Amino acid sequence: MPLSKSPTPPGMHRFAVALACVTFLLLFVGALVMSTGSGLSVPTWPLAWGKLIPPLVGGVRYEYAHRVVAGIVVVLTLVMVLWATMSRSRRIVRNTAIAAFGLVLVQALLGGLTVLLGIPLPIAMAHTSTAIIFFCTAVSLAIFTNPWFEDAPHLEEAPRRIPLTRLCVITTAVIYCQIVIGSVVRFVNDAIAIKDFPIFAGPLFPGTMSEAIASDYAHLGGATAVTFFVLWTAIRVFRSHLDQPKLVRLAELLLVLLGIQILLGVTTIWSDGAVIPASAHVAVGAGVLAASVALTIRAFRLYGRPRTIAPDAARRPVAGVFERKVTV
Question: How far apart are CA 262 and CA 258, in angstroms?
Fold first, then answer.
């Protein structure tokens, strides 16, 4: 029985893509705030010393830019959830938009608490972790509103010990954990402990294991794990799914972004945490995660369980319009 469709309103997909792009910009600006040490340049919230627009000097420029872009993201998300709800979009679009709006409100509250409480580590980590989850949700919205998502057929994957869908989930989880570890490194360490990469403070393994060196070491270990799983996932796609160009393009994008991310990571170490490489390293890391999320969703759409009609999808025709009364 064919699946009942509620077509995505014209323009919603482009709007969802714009939301994801502005969220990516927000992550980069947030990384600039951290890289420049501007987190407490404006110690009041939501206004800056009681003003809507403070004097834009020093670190205030980065912190205020962060708040402005965050405000734009909140407004765009509100428009998205209202549009998806009022237009009676597909359930997956509505629910994802509602989840995105809930996340952005939590994110705004955590951002305010981070400032008002002086950047405590637990709140700051929650702020960063929620930001990444929100970005993934925005990317998911862009995929769910794409006409391809509704029209793509269900396919059967050749039997594998680890199916592509499960491998994609593992890869995405590893990338997310690595981003969280990287955030801990940025919050805990005032400077990069291992500055002579690829050698660890002299020998292959550090002789003295301080907290700073341990966190850097964990981050480098996580980067190795990410590289392994990304390569595994991309090779699987290239070997077994060349007939699906959207999967192939995402696998190629994943490899390109991973290469850029590794280059930025090495540059960040060798430049002793220079602002632009360090901030770009954070943003491109989020891009790697977004590509993995997109690949995961599309793999599930193609090779996951066949979809069934939702309970509220099969509706009776409206009397008088689609039904004809027959008199005997």
Answer: 6
Sorted by sequence, the CB contacts under 8 Å of residue 315 that are 6+ apart come out as: 4
pLDDT at 1 over 50: no
Predicted TM-score (pTM) of the model is 0.85
| Number of other residues whose CB lies within 10 A of the CB of residue 5 | 10
Residue-wise pLDDT for 255-268, tens only, equals 999 999 999 998 98
Q: In the block, which residue shows the tokens 């309970």? A: 311
99 vs 5: CA distance, rounded Å: 22
> Whole-number mean pLDDT of the chain?
85
What is the identity of the amino acid at 98?
I
Q: How far is CA 102 from the centre of its chain?
A: 16
